[in-house]
Amino acid sequence: MISTLGFGTIAVALALSVYGAVAAVVGVRTRRPELVQSASLAAYVNFGLLAIANLAMVYALVVHDFSVSYVAQVGSRSTPLFITIISLWSALEGSILFWGLVLAAYTAAAVYVHRNHPGPLVPYATAAMLSVGAFFYMLLVGPANPFEAVWPVPPDGPGPNPLLQNHILMAVHPPLLYLGYVGMTVPFAFAIGALLSGELDATWIRMTRRWTVTAWIFLSLAIVAGMWWSYEVLGWAGYWAWDPVENASFMPWLTATAFLHSVMVQERREMLRVWNLSLIVSTFLLTILGTFLTRSGIVQSVHAFTQGTIGYYFIAFIAVGLVFSLILLTGRGAELRSPGNLDSALSRETVFFFNNLILTAFTFTVLLGTLYPIVAEALRGVKVSVGAPFYNKMTLPLCMALLFLLGVGPALPWRRAEPDVLRRKLVIPGVAFLAVAGASLALGLRQPYTILTFGFAAFVLCVTLGEFAAGARARMRAHGESALVALGRLINANRRRYGGYIAHLGVVSMAVGIAASSTFQSTRDVTLRPGQSVRAGRYDVRFDQLWAQNEPHRFVVGADLTVLIEGREVGRLAPRLNFYGDRDEPITTPAVRTRPDEDLYINLMAFERDGSSATFQIIIEPMVVWIWIGGGIIGLGGLVAVLPGRRRREVAVAADTYPVAAGKGGDV
Amino acid sequence: MNTTSSGGRRIGFVVGLVVILSGFAYLLYGGIGENLVYFVTPTELLEKGESAYDAPVRLGGQVAPGTVRWDAEALDLRFAITDGQKTIEVHSTGAPPQMFRDGIGVIVEGRLTREGIFESTNLMVKHSNEYRPPAEGHPPSEMYRSLIREGES
Fold it and tell me: What pTM does this model have?
């Protein structure tokens, strides 16, 4: 019953997508607005259909309808309700289904918001979005059908992957990731629309700015949530391993970040047209590549990949997207020549140029490291892995250069900087850099990258806060406002710029957190008997007792620990091992005491069956929390940049630029 | 600005870009060659002969039953890894991964010494995503029942 409903809605959505894509293009070419209208309608209806299909799947999961193949695969009667609901995205088929919903929502929203924009750009973009939709719905009726009917109906299922059940962040990370990944389809579709319609100026960029920033916020938060999950669940007190799955989410973030910066050059100076189109096409293709890497099994082994068919669909889609985009780009070659020119090497344009160069090099490095093992296995039949040393060696210098630019960029004006002004602006930040780097050296720090990171952090902090202070001071003088009001109005008056600066502060926070935690991490393994304690850093950790308990969906073995500083009890920690569904491989659940200066992170590694002793891994890691805080600040900065400012709206309507304004302003 | 200087600048710009990019590509190529870690089974490692020694590899296989010697006080772990045909002795310090035991799939990172012992720097248990029922009569909730505190289920 649910199988039929779910499959039926997806099949109709597939048919409507194909129809809508064709209708939009034919409608534009033959000037028949009613055809274009019907394509928009298809986009709206598809959203409804995908919502129904997803609700049907959630319903099937909740009522444990094991006649639906996906429920039989990930469901279990003993799994708590909340985890049952989020197991919608715990495996391949369900996550593609959810992806389809997110894509349908973005498509419908983008079509609606831009429905009154004149000209062929929007219909072409609609066709592009519906074509991408058609691909995913095709997966759902073919190789990744979650609604297959199972017979005979099994009485119970194995439950979702234990790693995904073990932490609340797994409810957060995948939706954020999909909202980020899929959101990049909108600017991509408008780029294709710009190429097809010949509207090659910055219109498509202005229209999609909010979409791009929104998707970028989600992607940023998803990456940080993934790092946090890895830290809290995997028990290694790390947050980034250059794992292909992590790289898959990081690569589109790099190109999207490059895009957010380089589009400003096109908007201001009409330069970098081809570059911007290429960047957003790359970003989109990298999101698809990321899904391919994480979902086809190719990362584990080429053989796992060839057993399934879904990988071939993705490869074909990436190839078609790449060839199609390249043909369009080369076909428009002459028209794409930039009317703008670089005035001076000492300008913000130059900084953006280097920012893009570095981010692109970064992307290539990660791409090479991620794909090399796959290619090596396919061609030479050897299994190799590219170690973290490769990534660190290649990307740390790039990170340093980016941090440096983060400081220089905001200090430089567009077009041409007066060397005198620049020197005055950079004196204090330069002194701050030297002071912090010098102090680090004096305190015995010898790792060059850590010293540079701390120094540049001070540098960027000074420049960025200086920009806020200078702007606010000017307002205070001009309007007689108080400091806080002036700061608020300053940000509100130019949300995009100051939102960006806030995001920069988040990056600094993350950089410092990563540098400090990776440089000063200390680990110690120890076996204790109940009542015994051990010294670790400034803590005394006492092992009180070992215990076990039955929970509805798991069996837990845990250890009670008391943490003391100078003999005074400051807290209790209980690292655990969770056994799901009587699998005998436990999922480790470290206990973490988080403070602004450092984390105390304890794993239960092994224990005697009678509770007479247990082995712990005690890790002390400074300043980890600033990575998560930095992630939050980056998201906040993006939010500031994307929310419509009250004062700016009238201007925006007049220029028909911003999506929200374009939608509302069309009737004016 | 006249056109010749603009054109000259463009060429200079392109040349500079090509130089930077090819330099970076060279670095990438060298960097990746030095940092590859090969994944091998015990049989494959022993077949390598002389080149097997002192080269960093990832060795994958199962923990040979009955070979695990774990000194909890000294945090010293010895076991043998096997692929069914060949077996190599492994030495590692530090706590083993959770519930490390006979027969489990493991990957050890490290190098083979001249003495024929694999010195491990990193020991990972292969987590399988597929459901495997526990060995007959040994679900964890039975094995560790005695740890359940009084007054709780």
Answer: 0.91
